[in-house]
TrEMBL record:
This is Metalloprotease. Keywords: Hydrolase, Membrane, Metal-binding, Metalloprotease, Protease, Transmembrane, Transmembrane helix, Zinc. PANTHER family: FI17812P1-RELATED (PTHR11733:SF167), ZINC METALLOPROTEASE FAMILY M13 NEPRILYSIN-RELATED (PTHR11733). Residues 381-396 have a biased composition (Acidic residues). Residues 154-609 form the Peptidase M13 N-terminal domain.
């Protein structure tokens, strides 16, 4: 779920709410005003007024004038649409209430009554609809309208119909490869956090001097300030990275080791050195050679936390990139630049220190020494005219960097080819569950001491049994290590550290620029484009100290009944799903009953984590007690935070699952389903407009947030989730007939999405991987459950219409669903997504989904030949 952290200098308000725009619109024309309204204003004006009251009165008058004009225009348009029916008319009265409030808590409320002519109802017509004309409703309506582009036929291209207006009004920032509604809400959430980080009064007025909250806020602000001080970052140069790299090198070379090297032979020393270096990198959250995660033993006890051995992430996002010559050449260049930078820094440091210069002076003169010390670089003159000795010239650091960079790319390419394809890794729980004794892994990869590796993290919880996701990978890893020179493996480990942490350095450093050039190419970012620093730093704080930041985010944004209302929507959707089980043609009664039991057993988590407990500053302070924060060491601050996350990860090993654990922070704009825990989780970060507001009519709540809830619920029954029973245990709990029926539906989904394509930006097309995305595409089919849940509780008297929207509630339900997927994306980023992301491109998450929902075609009265209303035989309908 995590994306590379980019920044931007543009801030976009939430799609369905724009507080900055309140009171800023100026419509021409006074409209007609009722005398009663003037009489009331006159009576108020004749009273003695304070200066504050005068200001409030002027604001109220302006707002009421605008509201009256809007009502008049709206009513006039309605009248023109209906006046040709030949029937008589009648007069109705529309009342708009406007309230203006200042920071001094003074409130002025006035009521404007406007009389307009509308056609008289006929006995067989629908009842008169109630519309909402409050400022919130007007803004909500305006935001929906501004995102639409009615030049598109919703039955042919619903995604652009719902979103082309938003896409046109939100061009992609130069420093981003993609930007959509999820990102816009993420920015909005970060703005809340940023205000807390930048406001000293926030803690001064709310918390006692030495409280846990005070300490947490000091850490949050210390990390933020260390990120914002760009002069300090650039002044430190590459020094923090060199310290990290030299630790890796010393461990690998056996200068410092996790075991006593005395009496060890060369093979043992080499194994222990590799073990120590990889363990160190993993303890800082840096991938290398392989990956260990900790989760439930799903086939035995899904709540017993055990070790899972898997393939690592690579320097390039997907194995396909290693086959593209242009990308491979760029990656090679980036690695070479990193290796040269490290070598030059180390040469400089050792040269200056050998001359007796102190560290303080060395830092002051950094980058000013040339030629490099020692000099001459070729060594003492042997009297020949070649300037050196008679032996072959030694390899200098530039030649060495060039050779090693090529070798590292070749090494990683072998690792990539040995790795399991992502569609199998993500979609085949049985194929990726391979329990073995630890001794088996030790024998398979003899170059590595796994016992010593585990002792680094959890000496008291030594595992005897682990689960391997792909047994062929450790076999290949051993063979690759056997055929790779020691200095190449060292260069691989060094570049893994540099690639992971160079972004923590100042932007003036060569290491930062090298890594940035790779990101620009892979995402299609404009070269040299960098976004707003404060936004970037707020995101770094959120990622590094997310539980702490989440506490204050929740305090600021998650009041009222949001948690209760959100939970109610989720439970309604679960109820609709259970009711539909008896009507699913491919599911027999036995499997339907078991599915209902699993739905009932789902753990619903809404709002914020309870471990560490968001409600307790002391609980969060304990979690982050190991994180050391200094305002002048941003690089070390992030490394410390990463090490803390790894520490708590390994504390879970050998224990029972903590039911209060979360995999996301409270401010995250996302949600997830966890199969072994059989839980669906919805952070407060996504329970915000344009996904949710407790004040919205239900057709918007269920269309936007209901889509999220239904998607996560459906994951419990998708291509992978269906293989876990109600206790989170991996087993075949459906009958064979039901499993076969589901497989036919899944095959239909795979075929449908595999036919979709994206532009590669080079004049070609790349197909969506229908196998990789099948689980998420099936999750998206859950929108029908959200629709049914809304219909089941629909109450017209409580679901007001919005002004100026000539759409039915059913149509607005689907519009709310479609509009949260708005996203502009560069071709390069789209290619990376297709290759690595189990989610389909956003356009197909909308159009592909509604084409399988007959209720959508009915709501928009689509013809039988419409693209998004295919014949029933060609639709992939799972849940009816």
């Amino acid at each position: 779920m995590a994306e590379p952290r980019a920044s931007t200098d543009q801030e976009t308000a939430p799609l369905l709410r724009d507080p900055e725009a309140e009171g800023s619109q100026d419509y021409d024309g006074p409209g007609e005003r009722d005398p009663t309204f003037l009489d009331r204003i006159t009576s108020v004006v004749q009273e003695p007024l304070t200066p504050l009251t005068k200001v409030l009165l002027v604001v109220a008058l302006l707002f009421l004038l605008l509201s009256s004009v809007f009502i008049g225009l709206f009513a006039g348009a309605q009248h023109k649409l209906k006046e040709g029916d030949g029937r008589g008319g009648r007069q109705i009265t529309v009342t708009a209430t406007a309230t203006a409030t200042t920071t001094a808590s003074a409130t002025t409320t006035a009521i404007a009554t406007t009389t307009v002519s509308v056609p008289a109802p006929v006995p067989t017509g629908p009842p008169e609809e109630r519309a909402c004309f409050s400022s919130d409703c007007i803004l909500l309506s305006a935001n929906i309208l501004s995102s639409l582009d009615t030049s598109y036929d919703p039955c042919e291209n619903f995604y652009d119909f719902a979103n082309a207006g938003w896409l046109a009004n939100h061009p992609l920032p130069a420093d981003k490869g993609s930007f959509g509604i999820f990102n816009a809400l993420g920015q909005s959430n970060q703005q809340v956090i940023r205000k807390i980080l930048e406001s000293a009064e926030y803690s001064a007025t709310l918390y006692p001097e030495e409280s846990a909250d005070k300490m947490l806020l000091r850490k949050l602000r210390g990390l933020y300030q260390s990120c914002m001080d760009e002069d300090q970052l650039n002044g430190m140069g590459t020094t923090p990275l060199i310290k990290l790299v030299e630790t890796v090198q010393d461990l690998y070379r056996g200068k410092t080791t996790i075991v006593d090297a005395a009496g060890k032979d060369d093979t043992e020393k080499k194994r222990n050195g590799l073990t120590a270096a990889v363990a160190f990198l993993h303890s800082r959250g840096i991938d290398a050679l392989f990956d260990f995660s900790i989760d439930g033993d799903v086939a035995v006890d899904p709540n017993f936390m055990t070790l899972w051995f898997s393939q690592p992430n690579l320097g390039l996002p997907a194995k396909e990139y290693y086959d593209e010559e242009s990308i491979r050449d760029l990656y090679n260049d980036v690695l070479e630049r990193l290796l040269v930078t490290i070598a030059e820094e180390q040469d400089y440091s050792s040269g200056v220190k050998s001359r007796g210069v102190s560290d303080l002076v060395m830092n002051e003169v950094k980058y000013k020494w040339w030629p490099p010390w020692p000099w001459p670089p070729w060594g003492p003159d042997d009297g020949d005219d070649d300037g050196g000795d008679d032996d072959e010239d030694p390899e200098d650091k530039y030649e060495r960097a060039e050779r090693l960079a090529k070798a590292v790319v070749h090494f990683e390419r072998k690792l990539a080819n040995a790795s399991l394809d992502l569609d199998i890794l993500y979609q085949d729980p049985w194929g990726t569950y391979n329990p073995v004794p630890l001794s088996n892994l030790t024998k398979t990869v003899p170059q590595f001491s796994f016992e010593e590796y585990f002792a680094t993290f959890a000496p008291r919880n030594f595992p005897e049994r682990i689960i391997v996701t792909y047994p062929a990978y450790p076999v290949s890893l051993s063979d690759i290590l056997n055929k790779t020179e020691s200095d190449v493996v060292e260069a691989y480990l060094v570049t893994r550290a540099a690639l992971a942490t160079a972004s923590h350095l100042g932007m003036d450093t060569e290491a930062w620029q090298a890594v940035r050039s790779l990101e620009e190419e892979l995402k299609g970012i404009k070269k040299g484009a960098v976004g707003d620093r404060s936004e970037y730093c707020a995101s770094q704080v959120e990622n590094a100290l997310g539980y702490a930041a989440g506490r204050y985010f929740v305090n600021e944004t998650f009041a009222g009944e949001s948690r209760e209302k959100g939970t109610e929507v989720i439970k309604d959707i679960i109820g609709a799903f259970k009711k539909s089980l008896s009507e699913i043609e491919w599911m027999d009664d036995e499997s339907a009953e078991a599915a209902a039991q699993k739905a009932d057993a789902l753990r619903i988590k809404v709002g914020y984590p309870l471990y560490p407990d968001t409600r307790s500053a002391a609980s969060i302070a304990t979690y982050y007690s190991r994180v050391k924060i200094s305002e002048d060491t941003f690089f070390d601050n992030l490394v410390s935070a990463d090490a803390n996350e790894q520490y708590w990860k390994w504390q879970k090993l050998g224990k029972q699952r903590n039911p209060n654990d979360w995999e996301m922070y409270a401010s995250t704009v996302n949600a997830y389903y966890n199969p072994p825990g059989n839980e669906i989780v919805f952070p407060a970060g996504i329970l915000q407009p344009p996904f949710f507001s407790e004040k919205w009519p239900a057709y918007l709540q269920y269309g936007a947030f209901g889509m999220v809830a239904a998607h996560e619920l459906t994951h419990a029954f998708d291509s992978a989730g269906r293989l876990y029973n109600q206790e989170g245990k991996l087993e075949e709990w459906w009958t064979n007939a039901t499993s076969a029926g589901f497989q036919a539906k899944q095959d239909c989904i795979v075929k449908q999405y595999s036919e979709y394509t994206i532009d590669d930006g080079k004049g070609g097309k790349i197909h969506v991987n229908g196998n990789l995305t099948s689980g998420e595409n099936i999750g998206d089919t859950g929108i029908i459950q959200a629709y049914r849940a809304w219909q089941a509780q629909y109450n017209q008297s409580e679901e007001y219409l919005l002004p100026g929207l000539n759409y039915t509630r059913e149509q607005l339900f689907f519009i709310a669903f479609g509009q949260v997927w708005a996203q502009n994306i560069k071709p390069a980023s789209a290619v990376q997504r297709v290759r690595t992301d189990p989610h389909s491109p956003n356009q197909y998450r909308v159009d592909g989904t509604v084409s399988n929902v007959p209720e959508f075609a009915k709501a928009f009265n689509c013809s039988a030949s419409a693209k998004l209303n295919p014949p029933r035989a060609k639709q992939c309908i799972l849940w009816s």
